[in-house]
Amino acid sequence: MTRRDINITEYQSCFFDRDDIDSASEALLYTRYRKQIEVTPPSYITQHRWKLTAKGYVGHIPLTRDLHLHLQPKVSVANIFGMWEYAYKLNSFQLLEGVTQCDNFQQFYSQLATILARHSLDLFRRGLYRTYLNQRDRLTVVRGKLDLRDTLKRPWEPRVTCDYPYLTADVPENQLVAWTLYLVVRSGLCDVSGNGSIVRKAYKTFSHHVTLQPFEAKDCMGRSYHRLNSDYQLLHSLCRFFLENTVPNTRSGDRLTFPFLVNMAQLYEKFVAEWLRLHVPKYNDNLRVESQKKHHLDDNEKFVYKIDLVIYDRHTHEVRYVLDTKYKVPQKPSSDDLAQIHSYARTQHCREAVLIYPEPLRYPYKNYIDRETRVRTLIFTIDGDLEKAGKVFLTQLF
């Protein structure tokens, strides 16, 4: 049976004949991908056809060996790349210009994987980062520090127990890159676009020198870089993107496959936060931006608010604005959203609360919920020039 590829655009619905989706695919859609795809079974309402609606994720789902779903973004790939650069703090690096010329998200993924592979191979040519690790072994000659007590326990053995340092490239800096390349190879997305050979070459190169160890996206953050391993900063930022969005949770026959799914709401949130962090001080150097601020609601710290964005006065440390990003386009803000941002503002003793949307609302909101707190809806659009959109947003905000 030939493989079928189904393209679904973000927040849009597609219809398929009853026989297009078998029982195995139906079960996977309901059990594993309900967050990514809304499934409406055949009925009179759907004219006895399947209705699939993408929920705000973009990427690739190898549902079965014969059926693959491609969730396409509603904005241009160039803007996805621009958001990604800001969100993962890569806009200061000179990456390949060809990425912004991609026609679809699969090409975007493939191009980023190619960047990762090329930088990995360049790093290997210059020399992998190595460090000394402690090794304990029984040797025929003394090396390093002799463990006399352990050696005397076996006086009949010709070998002695030694603790010694050895120089190796099998360290987390390289293991993290090798694991990410492994996931990219197993996704199969690069083979479709023809860039699979360089990615496989990079993976094989690293796999010959390091042990394959699983890593998570959080392992890419908070790492310490210095003169000897500073070249890894870009690589680990790229690795973070792939690790955050690759989940090994689908089996097709006896092969483990790796769906690649980007949560656009999270990407939008990270993009807006990083863009404002860089540009708000340029607009007003008395202000600074903090993202994902925690506010504990009880003394035991079991209940907590996570506020998307808080803008402070640098000198008084007073909270001037609280902001919350909403990657959805309703006709008007929901009561829950208004109540949420109002609560955020009250906990921070702030008079200005803002809900941020990617597209204009039919019924925007601007009003005082109480005598002290003004709540507004503002737009940070992502379907055009991102820099111009940001400047318009700052003008409206301040």
Overview of this structure, please?
- With 398 residues, the chain is an alpha+beta fold.
- It is built from 11 helices and 18 strands.
- The N and C termini lie far apart (59 Å).
SSE arrangement:
Elements: E1 4-9, E2 13-16, H1 23-32, E3 37-40, E4 50-54, E5 57-61, E6 67-72, H2 77-87, H3 105-126, E7 131-139, E8 145-146, H4 148-152, E9 160-168, H5 172-187, H6 189-193, H7 196-207, H8 232-245, E10 250-252, E11 255-257, E12 260-263, H9 264-283, E13 287-296, E14 304-313, E15 319-325, H10 335-347, E16 352-357, E17 366-368, E18 374-379, H11 386-397
Parallel strand pairs: 1-6, 15-16, 16-18
Antiparallel strand pairs: 2-4, 3-4, 5-6, 5-12, 7-9, 8-9, 10-11, 13-14, 14-15, 17-18
Helix pairs in contact: 2-9, 3-7, 3-8, 5-7, 5-8
Features:
398 residues; 11 helices; globular; four-stranded mixed β-sheet; alpha+beta
In short:
The chain is of the alpha+beta class and 398 residues long.
N-end to C-end Cα span:
59 Å
Instruction: Describe the sheet with the most strands.
Output: 6 strands, mixed
Q: Write down the overall geometry.
A: globular
H/E element order: EEHEEEEHHEEHEHHHHEEEHEEEHEEEH
Q: How confident is the prediction overall: mean pLDDT?
A: 87
Number of helices: 11
> What spatial order of strands do you see in the largest sheet?
13-14-15-16-18-17
